[in-house]
Design brief:
Blueprint: E1 50-51, H1 54-62, E2 71-72, H2 91-96
Antiparallel strand pairs: 1-2
Length: 99
């Protein structure tokens, strides 16, 4: 029997779908389970699923502090990454950098 309880925001991605596992090689996320979901124990908020290639990291390092944005995996990015404040982004911002 299906549960009628709504899913927690931690269980949803920014598309309001069930959060998908993002990375397993190497394993990603605060809990090292492949999911980019929040935890009160995680001050860095590992909620955004980004794709960082060697080329991206080398370019980013060469830019001396320029804001460089990786490709974003929307299905693996937690709904809790959305919101207001200096650590939060909008869905529109994420859409601009999606894979």
């Amino acid at each position: 029997m299906a549960s009628s309880q709504p899913l927690n925001p931690e269980d949803l991605n920014v598309l309001a779908e069930p959060l998908q596992q993002h990375g397993t090689s190497p394993i990603t996320g605060f809990f090292r389970d492949g999911f980019c979901r929040p935890s009160a124990s995680d001050p860095a908020e590992h909620t955004l699923a980004g794709v960082l290639t060697k080329e991206f990291l080398e370019y980013s390092k060469s830019q001396d502090g320029e804001k460089i944005v990786p490709r974003v995996n929307l299905r693996g990015t937690s709904m809790t990454a959305l919101g207001e404040g200096n650590k939060k982004v909008t869905r529109e911002e994420l859409e601009r950098f999606k894979e």
